[in-house]
Design a protein that fits this description.
Elements: E1 8-15, E2 22-23, E3 26-36, E4 41-46, E5 50-64, E6 67-72, E7 75-79, E8 84-89, E9 95-104, H1 110-117, E10 122-125, H2 129-140, H3 148-168, H4 179-196, H5 204-211, H6 215-226, H7 230-248, H8 253-259, H9 265-276, H10 280-288
Antiparallel strand pairs: 1-3, 2-3, 3-9, 4-8, 5-6, 5-7, 5-8, 5-9, 7-10
Helix pairs in contact: 2-3, 5-6, 7-8, 7-9
């Protein structure tokens, strides 16, 4: 795996692809931790293996097949063999991350091998468990302790399974298809989710948690696909729903506010006027006339 580094702060990385390092049916190609200086980068390269990138600290941009996603601490990227990959540290922040590159050979269960083989570009947020496991795994490649092979084997299996679980939490099988379709399906599912939960206090953070992606990735993807910021879209749907309820004339103002996802009548009226240019009360009065 050839990579061009510019201005690294440090790198602790075991490159094992030529040493034929196997843990069961998993070939460990590379494992370690890297910290890039501000605005530094790893030049674009074609993946010769599957790879998990875990952002420990700082900010950066991960570019996969020309698609850019801004990442923060706790973000995890999973990519498969054959995609192009580039990493750029934020101009104001160092970018520190763990990288684990691997291949399979007749690996069981097949569902995991197929999943990682189709991860053209998937992002999730960690629940802290995965970071702990990856740190332990990196340590095992730099320490000379007893029963290392057994520990490595179990940690690798745990990392692969825990990431698979995290991706599939509160999601359906559309998550594991190639990235272009996945992105379109994800945006569609977000739109449907907002429609179905509009009476609740839907937030971007809540949506990102439901679909197991980072807030930055969800927001970026939605804006790219629709041209509208997700936060603004949620407000627009709420206001449209509120307007329909007001025109029906069956609900009081407080009921409309509640059904539009607002706990405060004052907040609802203020937002409605900002968005439509008129007050909810004026619509109610117009209906009565």
């Amino acid at each position: 795996m050839k990579e061009s580094y510019k201005e690294k702060v440090y790198e602790f990385s075991k490159v094992l692809q030529y040493s034929n390092e196997w843990v069961g049916n998993i070939q460990v190609v590379q494992i370690g931790e890297t910290c890039l200086e501000r605005a530094a980068c790893i030049e674009e390269h074609i993946q010769t293996c599957n790879e998990i990138t875990y952002v420990i600290s700082g900010k950066g941009t991960l570019i996969t097949n020309k698609e850019s996603v801004e990442c923060n601490a706790g973000d995890i990227q999973i990519i498969s063999k054959g995609v192009s990959h580039k990493l750029i540290a934020d101009k104001d922040n160092q970018f520190r991350y763990i990288h684990f590159a691997f291949n399979f050979d007749n690996y069981e269960p097949k569902v995991l091998a197929e999943f990682y083989g189709q991860c053209t570009n998937i992002f999730i947020r960690d629940s802290r468990t995965i970071k702990h496991l990856l740190n332990m795994l990196v340590d095992e490649y730099y320490k000379d302790s007893g029963f290392t092979n057994i520990v490595r084997d179990n940690l690798i299996q745990l990392v692969l399974v825990m990431i698979w679980r995290r991706v599939h939490e509160n999601s359906d099988s559309s998550r594991i298809i190639p990235a272009t379709d996945t992105m379109g399906n994800l945006v569609y599912n977000i739109i449907k989710y907002v429609d179905e939960h509009i009476s609740e206090k839907v937030t971007v953070a809540q949506i990102s948690k439901h679909f197991s992606y980072s807030v930055s990735y969800i927001s970026h993807l939605f804006k790219i696909k629709t041209g509208v910021p997700l936060k603004e879209y949620i407000i627009a749907v709420r206001m449209s729903h509120a307007r329909d309820l007001l025109l029906e004339g069956k609900s009081s103002l407080s009921e409309v506010a509640h059904l539009a996802g607002y706990e405060s009548m004052q907040s609802f009226c203020k937002r409605f006027k900002q968005h439509t240019g008129i007050t909810p009360g004026s619509i109610k009065r117009r209906i009565k006339e």
